[in-house]
Amino acid sequence: MVLDELSLSLREAFRRFTNRPYAEQQAIEEFLRDAQRSLLKSDVEVGLVLQLSDSIREVVKEKPPTGISKKDQVVHRAYLELVGLLGKQKRILDVSGPGKKRLLFVGIQGSGKTTTVAKVAKFLQRRGQRVAVICADTFRPGAYQQLSQLLQPYGIPVMGSATEKDPVKLIGEALKRLDEYRVRVIASAGRHMDEAVLRNRVEEIDEDVKLDATVLVVDATIGQQARSQAEAFAKAARVGYIILTKMDGTAKGGGAISAVVATGAPIVFIGTGEKVDDLEEFDPMSFVSDLIGIVDLRSIVRRVEAVLSVEDEERAKAMAKGKFNLEDFVVQIEAVGKPGMLASLAKMLPSSTKLPEGWEEKSTDMARVWRSILDSMNREERQDPTILNSSRTKRIAKGSGRSEREVRELVRQYMTARKLLRRMKGSRNLKLPFR
Ligand code: GDP
Ligand code: MG
User: Fold this and answer.
1) 188 lines ligand 1 (CB under 6 A)
2) Fewer CB atoms near the end CB (10 Å): N or C, the chain?
3) Ligand 1: does its nearest atom lie under 6 Å from the Cβ of 253?
């Protein structure tokens, strides 16, 4: 777990609160104070911390829905606010769609750009992409060698030049020679990059070499100062992603994440060490769950949301009638997490119903895989996945970086779940954990 300090103190705040018999005013204020202190220590901007506490105070004024305690209501809201503070939805570095992809990585020298280019190249390769790297860091001859060394074990080609001083020319040449690779990752020079230089560099390269996306690498140890880099970058890049590095070695990670999130820029990965494998996809929900780590957080969240969802009657009714599309299915999987959608569906079935073995394990961890597949489908396909033929399946697999087998598996599991739901049509006990 990265972010040890923030994690420890937030955990303690939640633990103390949930261990209390009642959530009286004083307990809530103490919880807020503890949580605020943890966030401020992690360099989260004061304004954001106050927003979070205000939102929790708001929900305290509301009467909790029947079946939900005040304490659960507060924990649930605190969880939601933390997820919101750290990004809400998971965002992925999108290399889907037709044609070859060109990704430009920029970042101040020392931010971890070179290392991160290698990490991402390896990540994409593991997802089945044909990847090559172009080192256009013409200021530091060492960068080319560094990248070659990092990627040589994985057979990912790196192209660069010790003599060419014009990065645009270098990139143009290299792209021609690496034409057979679908994703080309370009590492640009960093040096002492100020905002104007950053903008010029991205624009200059983009003009000459049509870029599909730009990735800014930011050192998380600068905490909330990450905001100004992210803002400058947003002005320069058409499609921009952010990767925060050195999350393993900083007490200010919470500040860095929330500052970047406040600019609206999507954080797609975090770097958690010096090795090529030390890269994690950034998912705010699981990040917060890990951060808080209290054993029953998930069950509290699930319980509250199951109750709240009943209020979403139209949807519930439609689902009870067996109208249950692929999006509904993936949302349920995500909401349930472990032990899995199918296991919880199984619980709703008459005990005589026999389910195939291994269903529970299978659905564990599938949420992330299936979300990425779903994100690569178009509207028509989401509405009716039976239209997936082999070329659609291929396209979706490529877009999501998953295998065709996994795409087919999602459709198969969905169809099975839908069948089950139809069988229980009209059941009054049907209560799915909405998100
Ligand atoms: P660049 O100058 O931006 O290209 O940065 P480098 O990739 O050369 O990295 C600078 C230093 O930061 C190196 O010592 C890296 O090993 C280290 N580094 C990069 N990413 C991480 C990370 O996620 N965690 C830790 N602990 N160190 C990192
Ligand atoms: Mg470098």
Assistant:
1) no
2) N
3) no
Annotate 251-291 with DSSP letters as a single string: S-HHHHHHHHHHHTPPEEEEE-SSSTT-EEE--HHHHHHHH
pLDDT tens per residue across span 326-367:
877 777 666 554 444 455 555 555 554 555 555 555 555 667
What CATH number does residue 15 fall under?
1.20.120.140
The residue contributing the CA closest to ligand 1 atom 2 is 110
| Ligand 1 in reach of 245 Cβ (< 6 A) | yes
Question: Distance between CA atoms of 38 and 60, rounded to whole angstroms?
Answer: 21
The answer to whether residue 94 is domain-embedded is: no
Of the bound ligands, which one is closest to the alpha carbon of residue 138? 2
Q: Is the pTM of the predicted complex or chain greater than 0.90? A: no
Judge contact between 366 and 406, C-beta under 8 A.
no
CA of 274 to the centre of ligand 1 (A): 6
- Structural domain range at position 9: 4-85
Say if ligand 1 is within 6 A of residue 273 CB: yes
Could you tell me the distance, in angstroms and rounded to a whole number, from the CA of residue 107 to the centre of ligand 2?
9
CB-CB contact of 260 with 231 (8 Å): no
Check whether residue 277 and residue 323 sit in a common domain: no
CA of 144 to the centre of ligand 1 (A): 15
Tally the domains of the chain: 3
Sheet containing strand 267-271, edge to edge, reads 158-159, 131-136, 183-188, 101-106, 213-219, 240-245, 267-271, 279-281
